[in-house]
Every structure is written in C-alpha cells, then in structure tokens.
C-alpha cells in the first residue's frame, strides 16, 4: 500500500541501509507560512508553529525544527524537544542538518531545570545518530544516580548499533536497580544479534519478576522465527510472568498455526494474565475456534480476563462474535456491559455506532465512562451530540467527563483540542475543570496558554486545578505563572488571616 502511494507521488520513498523511510509531502504554502511564523512571530506564535510543523511527515520540517532548538526563548526550545520526542525519533537521523542538533540537545539533557525532560532528551540523543551523543549516553551509564543510568539506557535504544553500546547495555543487566536492568533489556531488543538474544535468555532467571517478564517479551520483539521453539518451551515455565511474556512474544513473532494448540492449553492456566495472553495469540491467528473459548471467558472468575475476552471477540471481526457482544451489551450486569463496549469499539461492524450511542446513554456511569475512555482505541463511531453529553456528564465525581477528555486527546482526534478549548470557557466551573484535565495531556501550545489563563479564573477550584495540572511542567512561562499564582494565593491567605483577626 505504501509503495503504491509512493508510485502515485503522494509519498517519497528513501532507502537508508536496511531502513526504508516513507515521507509524506506537506503543502508548500503551509510550510512557508509556518517558517514565517518561526521567524517573525512572538513566543506563542513560534510555539504553535513548532507544534504544527511536528504534525507533518515531510523531511523539509527538520531544518526548521532544528533551528528552533537554538531559539532565544526556552519555551520554544522545550516545545521543540517535546514534539521531536513525541513523534520523530524513528526519522530524526535522516533529517537534513541533524549534525547541528547535538550541542543544543546535550545542553538541554544536562540542564538542571529540565530534569523533567531527561527521558525525552536522552531518547533524542540516541535517535539523532551522532557519535558525540551516543558517547554521552554511554558515559552516563556509569553515573551513580540510577535515574540517570536508566534514562541513558532508554536513550540508547534509538542509537546506531555498535559493539560498544551492546557491551555496555549487557553490563547493565547486572545493575542493582530494577528500572536500569529493565531499560537495558528493552534497549538490547533494538539490536538484533546473538549477543542480545543470549543476554535476554539469561535475564529469564533474573531475581525480579518484572525483569523476567520484559526479557521474555523482548525475545518476541526480536521478530526471529527461530526463537519460536524456545518461547513455546517457556510456556511451561514455573513463573507465570515468564509464561505471560512468552505468550505475548509468540504473538509478536508472526504467529503460525503450529502454536495454536499450546495456546488452547494455556487458556486454562491458573494465572489470569497467561489466560489473557493465550486468548490474544489465538485472536491474532484468527482461529475461529477461539470464539467458543472467548465466550466462556466472558464469565471467567477474573474480571480482566472477562474484559479482554470481549475485546478479542471484537478483534475477530466476525458477525458471530459481534452478535455475542450485542447480547453482552444488553446484560443486566453493568460490568458485563462495560466489557461489551471494548469489543464493540474495535469490531468495525457497521452496527457498532448504533450500539455505542445506546451505551453512551446507559443508566450506569461506569458504562458511559468506558465509552468515553475508548476514544483511545481509534475513531469511535458516535455522533458529536453523544460526545458532548459525555463531556458534560457529572455523575461519579465527573469521572465520565474527565476520562472522555483525556481519551479525546490521546486518540489524536483532529478536533479534540478545539472541542476542549471551547469547553474551557463554559459557564460551569466543573466543566472548565474537565476541559483542563484533557488540555493538560497535550503538548499543544494553545492548551498550555489556556491552562495558564485558568490559573486566574474567578473560581478557586478552577485556579487550584489549573495550578495542579501545570505543576512539574518545565516551560519557563509555566514556572512564571505558577510563581504568580503562589504569590496571589499567599496574598489572599494573608488577607483572610488579617480579616479573621
């Protein structure tokens, strides 16, 4: 499909060794307008231009983004770091002028006031493909601070493969800190080779169960069919986390019918995570025998198994499976109706929209909340009126509305920002707080600007919420706004104390 689009001139195709990059062309006029905003606009306009540029997959955006890493205003530089880390790590090294990035990112990586962006800056250092950046990350693997070692190990996942990096990551597998070992294991997965595989196999005996779990999953990420027999062997491991990880790993390695029978056996495993993973593999195999088992799992003793069984029924995308979900959505048990939502959302059945609209008006707020949450699963086929109803839903301490707001942002729905910005001007203070909960989940500079404005809202609960959502964000304008908020709060408290006295 991508090659067809490239042939039609809608995508540009580039080969870089074993990597194939598809660039999506942006409108020339729009790029010129954004470049002008970067040169002539004020700080807010430049931040918006950075955000808008980062939405494109055109290689011409990179020289413009790289230039903003040297912008005189730290707010703009931080905006650029967030956008690059959020969606451009895979293609960053192929951008024209990437050589100029290292100094700016290294400065941000080591800046004390930007410690909250250490994860993002370490990943950018690894992704830029420059030796000076990789050397800094390798040096930080020896830092006495485990958080710095963990960040450096995470960043090296995006670096160009080298024997030195693989050796250093392998040495970290004996680090006393669990997070460091886990990050090192996850990064090793990126370097397909016998040393990485043998190291992950050793980690299956790690003292920490989560490390063992990630090691098993890592073997699956290798996408090496020759590991299938080893992973099938791990399905009988005494550790349920290893069995769970092995089942997930088998799903990652293009599943074939020869692993179906072991998966059916695992559907009766004592550990619910293992049962869920086995159901997932059978779904990926599109083995229709799974419909009967998944239907039985809808009444499993474990609630999460029930929920994922509904979701996998939806993923099978058959009329029979959808009919089972429709029946489940009409169950007198509200929890069963919640589970039905997950399956209906991912079913792609033409009847899904009608069913979801009905469930968005369910008498139980937990069911309505689930409909709002499932925007993260992709385009949820319900009408704008139903979305607005969910965003104004106040039952259950407004959780339905807040979760819908978060989910809208994570869904990357094109109109989500405008919807929440409009909501943030609502006359009802509780609705404004709901909008805040969603706006705080995006890097969009218009959302940041609105959060700052709401720190001066006439209603105290809105001001407090805005300050809580802003707290910890690294932008100087946020720090300035928080300082002003704190000063106003202290003045207000002093006035109250004087009046009471």
Structural overview:
With about 500 residues, this protein is mainly alpha-helical. The chain has helices spanning about 1-5, 30-40, 45-55, 60-70, 75-85, 100-110, 120-125, 130-140, 145-155, 165-170, 180-190, 195-205, 210-220, 230-235, 240-250, 260-265, 270-285, 290-295, 305-315, 320-330, 335-345, 350-360, 365-375, 385-390, 400-410, 415-425, 430-440, 445-455, 460-470, 475-500, and strands spanning about 10-15, 20-25. The chain has 30 helices and 2 strands. The longest helix has 25 residues, at about 475-500. The chain starts with a helix and ends with a helix. The mean pLDDT is about 85.
Task: Outline the fold blueprint.
Elements: H1 2-7, E1 11-16, E2 19-24, H2 28-40, H3 43-54, H4 61-68, H5 74-87, H6 101-110, H7 118-127, H8 131-140, H9 146-155, H10 163-172, H11 178-188, H12 194-203, H13 209-221, H14 228-234, H15 240-252, H16 260-266, H17 272-284, H18 290-297, H19 303-316, H20 319-329, H21 334-345, H22 352-359, H23 365-373, H24 384-391, H25 399-410, H26 416-423, H27 429-439, H28 445-454, H29 460-470, H30 476-500
Helix pairs in contact: 2-3, 3-5, 5-7, 6-7, 7-9, 8-9, 9-11, 10-11, 11-13, 12-13, 13-15, 14-15, 15-17, 16-17, 17-19, 18-19, 19-20, 19-21, 20-21, 21-22, 21-23, 23-25, 24-25, 25-27, 26-27, 27-29, 28-29
């Amino acid at each position: 499909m991508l090659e067809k689009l490239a042939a039609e001139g809608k995508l540009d195709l580039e080969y870089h060794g074993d990597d194939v990059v598809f660039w999506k062309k942006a409108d020339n006029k729009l790029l010129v307008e954004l470049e002008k905003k970067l040169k002539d606009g004020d700080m807010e306009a430049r931040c918006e231009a950075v955000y808008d540029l980062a939405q494109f997959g055109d290689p011409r955006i990179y020289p413009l983004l790289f230039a903003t890493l040297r912008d005189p205003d730290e707010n703009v530089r931080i905006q650029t770091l967030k956008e690059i880390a959020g969606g451009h790590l895979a293609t960053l090294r192929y951008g024209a002028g990437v050589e100029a990035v290292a100094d700016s990112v290294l400065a941000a990586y080591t800046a004390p006031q930007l410690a909250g962006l250490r994860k993002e800056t370490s990943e950018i250092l690894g992704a830029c493909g420059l030796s000076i950046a990789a050397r800094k990350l390798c040096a930080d693997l020896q830092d006495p601070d485990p958080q710095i070692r963990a960040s450096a190990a995470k960043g090296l996942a995006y670096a160009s493969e080298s024997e030195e990096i693989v050796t250093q990551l392998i040495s970290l597998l004996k680090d006393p800190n669990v997070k460091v070992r886990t990050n090192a294991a996850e990064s090793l997965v990126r370097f397909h080779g016998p040393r990485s595989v043998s190291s992950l196999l050793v980690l299956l005996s790690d003292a920490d169960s989560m490390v063992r779990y990630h090691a098993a999953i890592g073997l699956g990420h290798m996408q090496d069919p020759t590991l299938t027999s080893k992973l099938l062997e791990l399905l009988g491991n005494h550790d349920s986390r290893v069995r769970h990880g092995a089942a997930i790993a088998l799903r990652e390695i293009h599943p074939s019918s020869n692993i179906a029978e072991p998966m059916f056996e695992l559907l009766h495993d004592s550990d619910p995570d293992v049962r869920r993973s086995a159901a997932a593999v059978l779904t990926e195999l599109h083995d229709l025998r799974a419909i009967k088992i998944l239907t039985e799992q809808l009444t499993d003793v474990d609630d999460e198994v029930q929920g994922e069984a509904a979701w996998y029924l939806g993923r099978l995308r058959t009329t029979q499976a959808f009919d089972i979900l429709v029946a489940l959505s009409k169950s007198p048990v509200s929890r069963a109706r919640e589970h039905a939502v997950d399956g209906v959302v991912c079913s792609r059945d033409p009847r899904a929209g009608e069913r979801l609209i009905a469930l968005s008006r369910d008498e139980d707020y937990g069911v309505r909340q689930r409909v709002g949450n499932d925007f993260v699963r992709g385009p949820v086929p319900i009408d704008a009126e139903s979305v607005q109803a969910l965003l104004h839903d106040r039952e259950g301490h407004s959780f339905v509305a807040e979760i819908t707001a978060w989910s809208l942002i994570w869904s990357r729905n094109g109109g989500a920002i405008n919807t929440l910005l409009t909501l943030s001007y609502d006359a009802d203070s509780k609705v404004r707080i709901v909008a805040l909960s969603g706006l705080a989940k995006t890097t969009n500079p218009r959302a940041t600007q609105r959060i700052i404005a709401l720190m001066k809202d006439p209603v105290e609960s809105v001001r407090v919420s805005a300050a809580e959502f802003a707290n910890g964000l690294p932008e100087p304008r946020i720090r300035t706004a928080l300082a002003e908020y704190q000063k106003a709060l202290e003045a207000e408290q002093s006035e109250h104390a004087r009046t009471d006295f």
